[in-house]
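Next comes a single protein record:
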Amino acid sequence: MKSSDLDCAAAERRIRPYVIETPVTSSRWLSALSGAQVYLKLENLQETGAFKLRGATHKLFSLTPAQASRGIVTASSGGNHALGVAATGSKLGIATEVFVPSTIDPARREKIEALGARVRLVDGDSLLAEQTARREGERSGREYASPYNDPEVIAGQGTIAVELLRQLPRLDAVFVAVGGGGLIGGIGAHLKVASPGTEVVGCWPRNSRALYECIRAGHVMEVAEQPTLSVSTAGGVEENAITLPLCSEVIDRSVLVSEEEILDSLRRLYREDQQLVEGAAAVPVAAFRQVADDYAGKTVAIILCGGNVGAQIVAMIKQVQ
């Protein structure tokens, strides 16, 4: 897939009545650190607490009446995509079945079930959950909604870029956390068309950088994973993922961050910006802090992709230093 294959502007018009146009807010401490004008795009304020509602909504609106009547199957690593599919499915009367790793936060699972979705636990990582869900969709004749490997989902995520260009008269760079590549693929695809001078920076936890290594290798490969605070970006890349060629095209720069940098950025976001967010949202903040000197005098947006944070991480964030 190429960036020109996606029409994120059309997707934005389609889902506008169903998602929040999230605000951007200036971050004084990050601006002072860098000499740049740094803005945070608050996707943590989305209805389900994460950007995933965008892609899920666009996907469900793309279903034919026959597909919608049969229901939909999906998979999710940390639960944000599942929440998005379940929320929109509930509004549209579309039955939803969700496959998630058995390690999912219990509170997140309860939220998904409260929206009427059936949750199936898989003993393994998020990639195995995706593979299991896809097989179940094929077996049952239901549409499978990949969390990232689907053009309708990617176009939905790219609506963030459409909003950003309305909200910021100038945008020199955008920093985005990367998991399967749906978010940065959609954002990057729109920017390459509508604002080609904007640098697209992909940000990964060093402990979980599957797509980064696949891009470097030029093909999907198995990459060893270690635990990360960025649960929502964890997991491998599905074979034949359309995000691999797309992200290879649209990502201009890549930055890897440590777990210590993620945690410190979570704490700084809470103290300085009053934003209590999940680990994945702190990844691009940590990445920007690494390379801040390169952006003096520029206008930078950082995507805070979600705010669904478990009690254990909340305690770590609020811990007195």
Observations:
- The mean pLDDT is 95.
- The two ends are 46 Å apart (CA to CA).
- The CA atoms of residues 31 and 44 lie 20 Å apart.
